[in-house]
């Protein structure tokens, strides 16, 4: 993609769609589609384009034939896998916290009318021996086999404090999460190192330990959201859309269209047009010479290679299983977080395992879909995900698998000066909290204020 001058100074060209918009959004990944819906609802005139003939971008859901083609596999699809059309394999598989930020956005926008959800059966953490259900309440702590008798009591006290803590009640006795770090709060309750890692990574859903030096209150709020999500349905904090995550971008696309948004697939951007006086974006030009004027441009990193830098790589291994993994057969769909400390002392990143089956209409009957993902730390992708693949039952239970290593990009500037706002690549986690944080941050930078949710129950 190149930069060009003000279209008013360029040679005459044809108009793209209606010609003038508030914002042009490039790419139909989930981040971009949520923003399209939010901005359209806000009153922005939106043009949303994608170079592909389908919605979803990096978040698309593919059938088995499409997976075979994407990964350049030779030969026909084995009959034991079942019908190729019965599969909807997410390229970026993630679950949705039942009371998390994405659900709040879905309720706020009304996009839920275009979607059907089903509960995910369980959330587990692997600490070295086998997967255990993630505890999030005082009673869970007492029942869990993860902790010693003494640690159970300490966890019970910690979760009890979290449940009862109200930042508005300034006269509360005990530790003050507003003024102390999370490390200091853990110290106050005397929690062991493995317990701290479990709480921070499997409940608060942080991807590293930087949060330990931050004020404790945001972590307290994250733990509460997780516990509330479990309480919503009783057995798991996560829900998942029927027919795969590819349904989410399409739901927000429909929402945007209801509010006047215009969508154009098979439409690429060749040139970003800028005002020669201000240097700000003022439009886009397609390869066939059509132009649209706008105040802002939003897009995923693939459209703006000069405006992003690589910050890491993610290993993703998509597997089709013969049967449910042995240690989690009680849950036909689930998340398992393999804590980094359980893999190797020197490892810094957790390994995420996600399992789904035909109940969510993403696999053939009696077959399971699994994803193993993690941040790449060495040059050996296969070795790094061994601990995750072992949970699936090893090669005897894996009928087919597809391995990829994807670059992770972040924008090099916040977009306020030039008017070009670039989203971040999707991370290795199996939940959408980081994605929705990116959406809300982009919204704040574009609109100039926070998104204020209606006081509707979620």
TrEMBL record:
InterPro entries: FAD/NAD-bd_sf (IPR036188), GDP_dissociation_inhibitor (IPR018203), RabGDI (IPR000806). It comes from the Eukaryota. It holds the Pfam family GDI. SUPFAM superfamilies: FAD-linked reductases, C-terminal domain, FAD/NAD(P)-binding domain. GO terms for biological process: protein transport; small GTPase-mediated signal transduction; vesicle-mediated transport. GO terms for molecular function: Rab GDP-dissociation inhibitor activity. GO terms for cellular component: cytoplasm. PANTHER family: RAB GDP DISSOCIATION INHIBITOR (PTHR11787:SF8), RAB GDP-DISSOCIATION INHIBITOR (PTHR11787). Belongs to the Rab GDI family. This is Rab GDP dissociation inhibitor. It comes from Cyanidioschyzon merolae (strain NIES-3377 / 10D) (Unicellular red alga). The lineage of its organism: Eukaryota, Rhodophyta, Bangiophyceae, Cyanidiales, Cyanidiaceae.
